Amino acid sequence: MTEPVSPYGRSFLVEPQARPGAAACKFADPPLGDGLLGDLDKYFDPAHARVEFDRLFARTWLCAGRASDLAKAGDWLRFDIGAESVIVSRQPDGALRAYYNVCHHRGARLVTDDFGHGQRFVCGFHSWTWNLDGSLHRITDRETFDSGTICDNPPLSRVHVDEWGGFVFISMHDDPPPLTAFLDVLPAQLDAYRMQDMVVIADLSVEWEVNWKTALDAFMEGYHIHRRHPEGLGWIDDYHLQHDLFANGHSRMILPVAVKSPRLNDQDSLNDELRAMLAEVGLDPAAFEGRARDVRGAIQRRKPEWARSVGMDYGRYSPSQLTDDWNYFVFPNLTFNLHAEGMLVMRFRPHPRDVERCYYDVMVLAHRVADPHYRLPRYMGAPDVDLSGEVPRPPRARLRHGEASLGMVLDQDAEFVPRVQQGMRSRGFKGIRLSRQERRVRAFYEEYDRYLRGERS
Q: Contacts by 64-68 with C-beta closer than 8 Å and gap 24+?
């Protein structure tokens, strides 16, 4: 691979030419520590969940949504995390402001929709009203209140807010670090993707009957691909993954795409997936019969020219970025599956009342393409929609687990993850045993524990 090396180093799981299970496998990274991850209360205990919220979610930067949903002055969005709710609004001067979504009269939520537009926030209970900038506009029947009760003209309670890559982040911390400092190397590494230019083409929020960390763990490693997604072995190398650990709990995993898994004996003949990948960029699959190993490199060489033919510039991407799945984790609860054409965004939010439920948010973004014949690569599993950017973004769909398909790959994960939550409750289960293929999971919990111990301020 030719992607840049991070300042925190680069580690391949095994020697690049090794086969799964071969005696020649040599781990490139040092041991990650002994023992099991035996503290299972973090998945079941309501008391632990309360500490988790106060010491983790209330002290980090959290992705609240897309800046494109706040395009005009007066636009606002609602972001819920646990029992808290936050309003983020676009001001007349273009700045963002964020407030707790709560009325200072009796504590009612001011807004209940996901998105809206207006110059004021009016409580639906007794019509107390605040301006877009958070200042108090009106207390209905003000003369009936003692002056000492309302003399402070309470403004909406502010929350820190910032933007990066077209995403809006909030922090409930009294004095958080700058967002760019918290993100560390991520802005520089992800600049080529120009995420701020992408448009939303799918937006789902699904209630899962698992703890949010159980759900997140499933998307932090490629170890399960061979069992849960066997159809992918014909076009993903699920074994020779690159893992990078960054500061502040962030991490990266790169999955080589357009290459067969070393778990397959046949490394030469083309399959339907590889033929489709070649055809999508204008290459003749017939010219590659018996040369499956050459497909990835051929697509990498071809894609910049193909992109120009549909009005896109891929000159900013590395060869690996033109084919592979660059999977980033943004601590504490956000993942990106990045491709040259677009990205899958997943966010994992705790349920406000039940520690064994969570909200699994899925958003698909894509670059605008004027060519009406253009389609996103089949392997992305994205919906076939107008990518001109001229049509309204789809509304957010709210679903229960299993209520509708999320696509084959996500359905396969969604079907199995509840079994993990259930099994961890067994008295016969002594703790989580992690391989080096799951080193990002371990790194997540190392940073998570720092917050829970109060070591992160």
A: 64/88, 64/98, 64/161, 64/168, 64/169, 64/170, 65/167, 65/168, 66/166, 66/167, 66/168, 66/200, 66/363, 66/365, 67/96, 67/163, 67/166, 67/167, 67/168, 67/196, 68/166, 68/199, 68/200, 68/393
Q: 38-42, long-range: CB within 8 Å, 24+ apart, which pairs?
A: 38/430, 38/431, 38/432, 39/431, 40/424, 40/429, 40/431, 42/211, 42/213
Q: In this structure, what token pair is assigned to residue 34?
A: 């002994």
403-415 pLDDT, tens digit each = 888 888 888 998 9
Mean pLDDT (whole number) for 328-339: 97
Q: What is the pLDDT of residue 4?
A: 38
Q: What is this structure's pTM?
A: 0.92
d(CA 399, CA 405): 10
Task: Answer for the pair 67, 168: CB distance below 8 angstroms, yes or no.
Answer: yes
Local confidence band at 36 (pLDDT 50, 70, 90 cut-offs) = low
Handedness of CA 262, 267, 273, 274 (dihedral sign): positive
pLDDT of 3 over the 80 cut: no
Q: Which of 243, 241, 244, 283 is nearest to 259 (CA)?
A: 241
Q: What does the block give as tokens for 403?
A: 């209520």
Taking only the tens place, the pLDDT of each residue in 387-402 is 888 888 999 999 998 8
Q: Of 194, 233, 205, which Cα lies nearest the Cα of 362?
A: 205
